[in-house]
């Protein structure tokens, strides 16, 4: 599959993506645990059907030491016993934050309260920003049909 656009070849997109990549780097450095970040990024990408981001976050998580079992079970996290209560709360928030049109009310108070039990305000802020960031990245990649399969861990990190 050929992508519809090469973002990096376009001056405006190149400038905007530089800022987006900086935002992504800041999120990676946040107090939100790295494993949680990768699980959330993967789950949001699965929901949205973004193959490029699924490729990226599966490989980044693996390079960071995540197990294949947990990565395979992210799509069915509710029934899986391999996630912590904190990770489950983050995944629930990520799902409702991604499926806003389906949820009607957005993120429910119950889901928010569960996340707030496990993460402080700084971590919650990073989690909300990450969900929004991943939805933006997914949509850009899907609209322009960015291909998956060739990503190398660390490729987009500066």
UniProtKB/TrEMBL annotation:
Superkingdom in the source lineage: Bacteria
GO molecular function: peroxiredoxin activity
Domain Carboxymuconolactone decarboxylase-like span(s) in chain numbering: 23-95
NCBIfam families recorded: ahpD_dom (TIGR00778)
Name of the protein in its database record: Carboxymuconolactone decarboxylase family protein
Species this protein is from: Streptacidiphilus fuscans
């Amino acid at each position: 599959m050929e992508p519809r656009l090469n973002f990096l070849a376009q001056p405006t997109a190149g400038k905007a993506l530089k800022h987006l990549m900086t935002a992504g780097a800041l999120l990676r450095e946040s107090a939100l645990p790295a494993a949680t970040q990768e699980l959330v990024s993967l789950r949001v990408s699965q929901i949205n059907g973004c193959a490029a981001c699924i490729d990226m976050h599966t490989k980044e998580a693996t390079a960071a030491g995540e197990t294949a079992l947990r990565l395979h079970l992210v799509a069915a996290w509710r029934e899986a016993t391999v996630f912590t209560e904190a990770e489950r709360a983050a995944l629930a928030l990520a799902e409702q934050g991604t499926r806003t049109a389906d949820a009607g009310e957005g993120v429910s108070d119950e889901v928010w309260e569960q996340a707030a039990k496990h993460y402080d305000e700084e971590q919650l802020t990073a989690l909300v920003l990450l969900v929004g960031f991943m939805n933006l990245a997914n949509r850009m990649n899907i609209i322009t049909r960015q291909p998956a399969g060739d990503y190398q861990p660390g490729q987009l990190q500066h």
